[in-house]
Specification:
CATH architecture of chain A: Alpha-Beta Barrel
Radius of gyration of chain B: 21 Å
Helix content of chain B: 25-40%
Strand content of chain A: 5-15%
Largest sheet of chain A: 7 strands, mixed
Shape of chain B: globular
CATH class of chain A: Alpha Beta
Distance between the termini of chain B: 48 Å
Number of domains of chain A: 1
Bound molecules: iron/sulfur cluster
Structural class of chain B: alpha/beta
Distance between the termini of chain A: 34 Å
Strand order of the largest sheet of chain A: 4-3-2-1-5-6-7
Oligomer: heterodimer
CATH topology of chain A: Aconitase, domain 4
CATH superfamily of chain A: Aconitase, domain 4
Radius of gyration of chain A: 20 Å
Structural class of chain A: alpha/beta
Largest sheet of chain B: 5 strands, parallel
Largest interface: A-B, 60 and 81 residues
Shape of chain A: globular
Number of helices of chain A: 8
Strand order of the largest sheet of chain B: 5-4-3-6-7
Low-confidence stretches of chain B: none
Mean pLDDT of chain A: 93
Order of helices and strands of chain A: EHHEHEHEHEEEHHH
Mean pLDDT of chain B: 96
Chain lengths: 220, 463
């Protein structure tokens, strides 16, 4: 997994609550067996006016001028700002892959869907949880008060978000220490767990005694 | 200890210094849409599957329901990947055409792969369904699927304990689906975030295993990754003689342990709510989030009356998307399609309830298509033995092969833009059943009655 330490980029304010993973990447793209190539289809049904499918040339599609992602001011955004319960719904990790593939490195919101939140850490995408009031202030700034292209600096070392132009006060974000550590170091979860092979084997032996019916078809 | 605490404690391999837990995973369900990249990760890093016997794969999300031939090349590729990955690692797979094949969350319990007291995961958010059997069951992403294949463990953080205590005896036409929709409407889609939700109380104790599965299935729709019910006689009776469950002496031993799987009387819950469901009416969603739900005899709410500006905007956007107006009666809303199926309501009991509404009647001519998609091959066969397929077919419903079908429309079963559907599934998100499609979540009886009437009707007064 790629590590995340500090990132500066344009912020895209997506002013909606309950943005679900079906909206982040619709089902027709889940037929791919790859981890990449989803970026052009991120927020597909909001972003384009015509229907899309895997493998098509998105350059030919009609962009929805009313969708904020298509405003020149937010071109090249790499930080997403949204509202409560971002990433709720389906467990599809494709939602995280699509955000990464479209160039996003961090998502800022007051709360996240549990599985989406977890999936972020498996891929080095930072979900930064901010207080509602701070979220509101970030929206007000990114939508109205900010310069042409609002840039933010998200720093995982001191868990703060601040405007790249140095104005305003930095705001803090919440993240559990073990998650933060794993992101900073870009840990390989499988490798880390395999290093505990002895403990796992010992547990398995005890568990086999406690619930032998779960191992009935296997020989020890 | 709560039931959740007990399940957690019995699977803890290691406590990590940062407060997370290395949790042992007894069983994993795999399907074609979220596993290919996980197997690729294994291949990539030279790792292998730790316990093939703990894994079970089924084809469900992408399969056609009209026949066994897959014509979509992308679906073909995904199914082929699942077949080659499972055969390579010696994992059991139920392929299309096998009577055991169906939606993962229907197949697991039906085969006795899902058992009380175990940890079970799947790359699918509705894995919470299996909690109805007092199993610790939760959905995971593809990276975790890989982790589980390779290590039989996951690094997780314990959730809070939440209990919903339900009492009362509702009208016989009001089902577990109505109850869970109503609760989500009352408590919101984030009520269970960060919590494991145990359903308890007299209503739940009287509920069938199918009804409990429906409620646990939709725990994720109120933000909880885990839904749970305690073990009781219904649980044990359901599991007896299941093909993959224990037999003989092992069965006796298992039942003795399962009987301990309930929250202790003095157990502490971080959050708790009590609801009386006696007066409940059948529920229908009107918006694009499961919390946007009303009783069939209520009128669509007016965003103007909503104080919170964010909620007001969300309501207005939902009404625009759904093509509805504030103050409209749900019973005046006509439907174009009807979908009976999914891991929420695709079991035998659900099909029986739906069939009871349609016997001797005809689907309204204004309804373009009414689908019945059994949750598994097993459900389909048993329904046919009872003659349910005849009742549906004679009424003008299409009787399909098992799969996820129009719950998410990855195969050909989809809504066209602006088509309105009465669906027994679990998500009414924008575009969920097809780009621009409008989904109303209801119970099986409500969906079946809507097909006949051509619009939503109150099944408490169904002739
Ligand atoms: S039936 Fe629907 S919700 Fe259930 S597993 Fe299939 S797609 Fe997911």
């Amino acid at each position: 997994m790629e590590s995340f330490i500090c990132h500066e980029g344009v912020v895209l304010p997506l002013d909606r609550v309950n943005v679900d993973t079906d909206a982040i990447i619709p089902k027709q793209y889940l037929q791919s067996t790859a981890r990449t190539g989803y970026g052009p289809f991120l927020f597909d049904s909001w972003r384009y006016l015509d229907p899309g499918h895997l493998g098509m040339d998105v350059g030919q599609r009609r962009l929805n001028p009313d969708f904020i992602m298509n405003e020149p001011r937010y071109a090249g955004a790499s930080i997403l700002l949204s509202r409560n319960n971002f990433g709720c719904g389906s467990s599809r990790e494709h939602a995280v892959w699509a955000l990464l593939d479209a160039g996003f490195r961090a998502v800022i919101a007051p709360s996240f869907g549990d599985i989406f939140y977890n999936n972020c850490f498996q891929n080095g995408l930072l979900p930064a949880m901010v207080a509602e009031a701070d979220c509101e202030a970030l929206f007000a700034w990114a939508l109205c008060d900010a310069p042409a292209s609002p840039r933010l600096l998200v720093d995982l070392r001191n868990t703060t978000i601040q405007r790249a132009d140095g104005t305003g006060q930095p705001v803090g974000f919440a993240i559990e220490p073990f998650r933060r550590e794993a992101l900073l170091r870009g840990l390989d979860a499988i490798g880390e767990t395999l290093a505990k092979a002895e403990r796992i084997a010992a547990f398995e032996a005890r568990h086999r005694q406690a619930m032998p019916w779960l191992f009935a078809t296997e020989t020890s | 200890m709560t039931l959740y605490d007990k399940l957690w404690a019995s699977h803890m391999v290691d406590e990590l210094p940062d407060g997370s837990t290395l949790l042992y995973i007894d069983r994993q369900l795999l399907h074609e849409v979220t596993s290919a990249q996980a197997f690729a990760t294994l291949a990539h890093t030279g790792r292998t599957v730790r316990r093939a016997a703990s894994q079970l794969a089924v084809e469900d999300h992408n399969v056609p329901t009209t026949g066994l031939e897959v014509t979509d090349p992308l679906a073909q590729e995904q199914l082929a990947a699942l077949r080659s990955n499972t055969s390579r690692f010696g994992i059991t797979e139920f392929a299309m055409g096998d009577r055991r094949q169906g939606i993962v969350h229907v197949v697991g319990p039906e085969q006795g792969f899902t058992l009380p007291g175990i940890t079970i995961v799947c790359g699918d958010s509705h894995t919470s369904t299996h909690g109805a059997f007092a199993a610790l069951a939760f959905g995971i992403g593809t990276s975790e699927v890989a982790q589980c294949l390779a290590t039989q463990c996951l690094v997780v953080r314990k959730s809070q304990n939440m209990r919903l205590v339900l009492g009362g005896v509702p009208h016989p036409a009001v089902s577990a689906k109505d109850v869970i929709l109503w609760i989500i409407g009352r408590m919101g889609t984030a009520a269970g975030t960060g919590a494991a939700v145990e359903y308890a109380g007299p209503y739940v104790e009287r509920l069938s295993m199918e009804g409990r599965m429906t409620m646990c299935n939709m725990a994720i729709e109120m933000g909880a990754r885990v839904g749970l019910c305690a073990v009781d006689d219904s649980t044990i009776a359901y599991l007896e003689n299941r093909p993959m469950g224990p037999r003989g002496r092992l069965w006796e031993q298992a039942v003795a342990l399962w009987r301990t799987l309930h929250s202790d009387a003095e157990a502490h819950f971080d959050r708790e709510a009590h609801w009386d469901v006696s007066a409940l009416a059948p529920q229908v969603t009107w918006g694009t989030s499961p919390e946007q739900v009303i009783a069939i005899d209520e009128r669509i709410p007016d965003p103007a009356a909503q104080q919170d500006s964010k909620r007001r905007e969300a309501m207005q956007r939902a009404l625009d998307y759904m093509g509805l107006n504030p103050g409209q009666a749900m019973t005046d809303v006509a439907v174009d399609q009807v979908f009976i199926g999914s891991c929420t309501n695709g079991r035998l009991e659900d099909l029986r309830q739906a069939a009871a509404m349609v016997a001797g009647k005809r689907v309204a001519p204004t309804v373009r298509r009414a689908l019945v998609v059994p949750g598994s091959g097993e459900v389909r066969l048993r329904a046919e033995q009872e003659g349910l397929d005849r009742l549906f077919r004679d009424a003008g419903f299409e009787w399909r092969l098992p799969g996820c079908s129009m719950c998410l429309g990855m195969n050909e079963d989809r809504l066209a833009a602006q088509e309105r559907c009465a669906a027994t599934s679990n998500r009414n998100f924008e575009g969920r059943q097809g780009a621009g499609g409008r989904t109303h979540l209801v119970s099986p009886a409500m969906a079946a009655a809507a097909a006949i009437a051509g619009r939503f009707v109150d099944v408490r007064h169904w002739p």
